[in-house]
Amino acid sequence: MALYADLHRHLGGALHPRIIYKFLKRQDHPVLNYFPDYDGFYNWFTRPCRTLEEFVKIHSLVEELQSLEHLPYFCLRLCRGAYTFENLQYLELRYNPYFRTDHKLSEAKRLGQMNEIVEVISANVRPAEYPITVKQIICFDRRLPKAINDAILKCAQDNLGPVVGVDLAGPEINTERTEDWIKLMSKARASGLKTTCHLGETSIDNVDPRFFATLDRIGHGIHIPISKPEMLKDLAKRQITLEVCPTSYRQTGVLKDFSDLRTVFTRCREAGVAIAVCTDNPGRNPAPCTLPGEYERLIDHDVIDFHELKEIQNEGFRSAFGFVGNSRLP
Ligand SMILES: [Zn+2]
């Protein structure tokens, strides 16, 4: 059995909609007033969105459910699904700890609770029966003020080990704050954390090349090869890997068809930029969305040839932030 590595998956988008629905039922959650049956919920939860902003709104609902008390429930289900149905050996799970703190607390208390969130996740992503290795990437958010993002960095630094890296997430807004974010990334790196950043997902507009000196990987970055292929040389020199999540671009309205990814793969291959294929928010995509399914879709739409597949699968291990061991598929 081949085993795979997924480097870009959000805790808020990782769970199958049926798991979320069952949880809402248990809680008698008010959102069920809109969805008396599962099919209605499923269609709403997995529908393609027109924009990334629209997509992120549903994500926020799930983040609120994943409170300290309920994180063990979600973590167990996530690990057993990834191991059993996707053959994942290694997973880097990313999330914003602040969004999972108790909204009723003061800001100071919420910041204090972030360490507990990370500790609960660390304790619950090692289920005895499912030997998957899960490492964590902690996300800053473009919507949050500087003080909170600074506290998120401190939280990542305090938990180095189970936490292997940081990411900048949220809608692609507030580009005037780019300098602050670059500083955050370089501080993170100086303290031994690896770095990735959601960039160039919906357009080239937020891709500032000053980021490149501080990054190990880029979340998506697909608009670099599409719109500014001249930047690829710099990425190759710095050995920055792109995390490409095929189904996501259809769900967020970024690309019309998988075949649009041919340009991305061809130009990266020619420039020597590595690509790791990842899933982003598999629970938000129409089933079945799994990492092996993403590989198959790429071949099906002539984005890659079958003989390139092993190399792409190996890249998931080679570009990992916290994988130790034998990563090469036979
Ligand atoms: Zn993402």
Structural description of this entry:
This protein has 330 residues and is of the alpha/beta class. The protein has a single domain (4-318), classed as Metal-dependent hydrolases (TIM Barrel), CATH 3.20.20. Helices cover 43% and strands 14% of the residues. It contains 13 helices and 9 strands. It has helices at 17-27, 38-45, 52-65, 71-86, 107-124, 146-158, 178-190, 223-227, 232-237, 246-251, 261-271, 291-300, 309-318; strands at residues 4-10, 88-95, 133-141, 163-169, 194-195, 198-199, 217-220, 241-244, 275-277. Helix 6 (146-158) links the parallel strand 3 (133-141) and strand 4. Helix 4 (71-86) runs parallel beside helix 5, helix 5 (107-124) packs parallel to helix 6 (146-158) and helix 6 runs parallel beside helix 7. It is globular and about 55 Å long. It starts with a strand and ends in a 12-residue tail after the last helix. The relative contact order is 0.14. The model has no long low-confidence stretch (mean pLDDT 93). Bound molecules: zinc ion. Zinc ion binds at residues 8, 10, 198, 219, 280.
